[in-house]
Write a structure and sequence with these properties.
By secondary structure, the chain is of the alpha/beta class. The protein has a single domain, classed as Vaccinia Virus protein VP39 (Rossmann fold, 3-Layer(aba) Sandwich). The protein is 36% helix and 19% strand. It has ten helices and seven strands. The protein has a seven-stranded mixed sheet, sandwiched between helices. Strand 1, helix 6 and strand 2 form a beta-alpha-beta unit. The protein is globular, with a radius of gyration of 19 Å. The chain starts with 6 loop residues before the first helix and ends with a strand. The structure holds S-adenosylmethionine. S-adenosylmethionine (SAM) binds next to strand 1, helix 6 and strand 2.
């Protein structure tokens, strides 16, 4: 795995990869090294220890988000990690902060994760289905949100409610990700063990239904009124346990 795409840093960093990892984690290096050396997301995922790597999500994220790397961005990740333990979690928040040098990262968790706060990382406590806190997070930045990741409760009804609240508030051209959609097949999370058609009230059923909306102009349904999602979704990607929805720009 190449640690960096920058040819000047490539030889040096690859040669000293293992020795560099603990150094890179140091605050001073994190300020400039990832962006100057263009450390790729897989390397940052390893350094920060996020399980997004083991899940196979990192190449997906990188393929869609690398073009935004040097932009000024605001993002929200729902689910900070570590559950009840106030000292555990935050791996992905720190990875995003290192990957996007100009991002402000918001993290939301049902448990108190205030200890994870640092520059460019803001911590919120509340439920992902609480419309009031979701609106407060969006309103906290005058620039709105460009990227939203739902890695929270993974309950099917929560995934759908959160999407319906937040997608309309996502900036135009923004990305919305839903992780761990295997719970669509887990009854204890409100899922169903068989194949899903697009009428199921599971995350997979719900997002499959939105796919028809991409072609809403072709529907031969008399007096069909396009929904907000028909009009504002530009593309939807499905991978193993990960969905990405792109908002029209
Ligand atoms: C899988 S972990 C998140 C991992 C983290 N996103 C990462 O990649 O490092 C899920 C987190 O979601 C939180 N959570 C569970 N239910 C929630 C809810 N209703 N609203 C917000 N967060 C919730 C849990 O406390 C837990 O910390």
């Amino acid at each position: 795995m190449a640690i960096t795409d920058n040819p000047i840093c490539k030889g040096l960093v690859n040669k000293h990869k293992n020795r560099l990892k603990p150094i890179i984690r140091h605050k001073l290096f994190l300020k400039w090294l990832p962006s100057i050396c263009n450390l790729n997301l897989s390397v940052l995922a390893t350094i920060f220890g996020t399980d997004k790597l083991a899940h196979g999500y990192i190449p997906r994220y990188e393929s869609l988000l690398s073009g935004l790397r040097n932009r000024k961005l605001n993002m929200l990740e729902i689910g900070i990690g570590g559950y009840k333990d106030p000292h555990q979690g935050g791996e992905s928040l720190r990875m995003w902060k290192a990957y996007f040098p100009r991002v402000n990262v918001h993290g939301l968790d049902i448990y108190d994760k205030s200890g994870m706060k640092e520059s460019r990382i803001r911590i919120w406590q509340g439920s992902q289905i609480d419309e009031e806190i979701l609106n407060r997070i969006v309103n906290s930045s005058s620039a709105g949100l460009d990227i939203i990741i739902d890695d929270g409760s993974h309950r099917n009804e929560h995934i759908i409610s959160t999407f319906e609240i937040l997608f309309p508030r996502l900036n135009k051209g923004g990305w919305y990700f839903v992780e761990d959609t295997q719970t669509s097949y887990w009854p204890e999370y409100g899922g169903k063990t068989e194949k899903h058609d697009n009428t199921e009230s599971t995350a997979m059923g719900y997002f499959k239904n939105l796919v028809d909306g991409l072609n809403h102009e072709e529907l031969k349904i008399p007096d069909y009124q396009p929904t907000y999602f028909d009009i504002n979704i530009d593309s939807i990607f499905f991978w193993h346990n990960l969905i990405a929805i792109h908002k029209s720009g």
